[in-house]
Amino acid sequence: MSKTSDDSLKGKKNKRKTLSVKDLKKLNKIFAYLRPQRKLWALGFFFLLITMVTSLLFPKLLGGLMGSTPSNLRDNMLQMMGLLVIQSIASFFRVVIFVMVTERALAAIREDLYGHLIHLPMSFFSAKRVGELNSRVASDTSQIGETLTTTLAELLRGISMVIGGIAILAFTSIKLTLFIVGVIPPLIIVTIIFGKFIRKYSKSVQDEVAASNTIVEETFAGIQTVKAFANEAWERSRYATRIKEVVGLAVKGGYYRGAFASFITFGLFGAIALVIWFGAGMVHNGELAGDKLNEFILYALFIGGSIGGLASVYAQLQKAIGATETIFDLMEEQTEMTVDRVETEAVEIGDIAFDQVEFSYPSRSDVQVLNGLSFKIPKGKTIALVGKSGSGKSTIASLLMRFYHLEQGGIVSNSKPLNEVDLAAWREELALVPQDVLLFGGSIKENITYGKTNASDAEIIEAAQQANAWEFIQGFPEGLETTVGERGVQLSGGQRQRIAIARALLKDPQLLILDEATSALDSESEFLVQEALDRLMQGRTSVVIAHRLSTIRNAHEILVINEGRITERGTHDQLLNLGGTYSELVRLQDLGGSEFLQSKHSVAKS
Q1: Whole-model pTM above 0.85?
Q2: What tens digit of pLDDT does each residue of 566-579 get?
Q3: Labelling 162: which of 269, 323, 468, 550 has CA 20 to 30 A away?
């Protein structure tokens, strides 16, 4: 795990504090999701109320059963069984209703959280790890679900047992009640103190589990690289180290919980022993009937058990509040566009101009990527960007797609600042064909129609044909319905590229961005892809980031980028005659590939 992530986790841990009224108010955000189900929720609480009342009556009937005479034993037993039947039926409906309400609320929370996350800017995802976000969406929402389903019910039932039980005891013997009430405050104080530690370490475990999930996510996503470098043992060791930290925190928290359980056990049974001792004295002195003492002891046991149960409920409530904090902190992150977007007029992309643009990535603010960059992209022309890795080429593409905000300078289209153009409408007119094409795990058809979800089969086939993809698609038994596998692993690199080109063709964008789209292909695949790209670029504004310089010979202008600045600009022939960096790059590259391409193009044109 990176130092940044570790520091982030430590920062979270340092912010933890004991449960407060302010923390409880945070649960109101969850209750907002319950409002659509409020009638069903109220019905669940009605059944919960029945279980609470029957729980309070149970010790009284049990005490009566213990003091029954042979003549009324049967009647008392029937009353007891009737009470248990009522409580069982109410408990069944309470659980079922709460589960229904909770699952619907959780579905709404997950939908809103996911919808919010995908509308966050790239700067957010640059600072977060996918595994951690997955853990938050899955485990933290489940934690909230457990609270809504059981914890709140147990909290209310426990409180009602304590308060109601003490009230009933007061009617039995105020003297003995005052005696037992004197024992409760110390137990509550210790519960709060230990609850602080339980919350601290349970949230620490949650954070560490999220971090370990990140390792799993990264390893499985890059399993090919892991196996290629025979690093299975290293990855296993890395995961084991993180899991040991989880275990260490969990065990340390277990010490606190164990000490807490020991104290509760000692305090509870010690209090019962004292009550029996004190009550026996009252019976001996004629101040209390023997059957009332039995009833009193049963209520004392139920009250003590409820207090002990409140400790775990308290800890669970803290976990839920911690999960709520995390989820709603994510949902308070500033989105780059409104989640419920209002349809706006289509954008007409004309000439685009960079004017003294300076930029650093938010996660690397100390590294200046672009330095006073100025150039124009005329409408319908092809502009190529070349330069060594890290020179700023891909950053220019990211800014064109408006993944990040500018620090200084500006980008205009049709003389209008880009930041004043509706973001969604702008991106509707863009298409990207990257070097490493990511296909979604569905069918070929689903991946092509990602560019236009309502496209007809005829449009899909035409796009596939223009992308030189239809021939290999027809070769699959399922054709367009062929499953590509996770990230498109069932297809070759050239096939994935052509699917991405078909996707872009189907979208029919005004601005096309090609990010080294042929750099990782063999010569045969490169020809097929380049031929498809030539069709795709025809008549539209294109920005090409090129590694193989032979693919940009016909660009209207080539910009050589070095350390965020333009050092050379011109056509292919002009830059060759200049004898600078570009001509040196051309000389260093193996031109055998370009000769192959030229011959193929000649054959294709003839």
Answers
A1: no
A2: 999 999 889 988 88
A3: 323
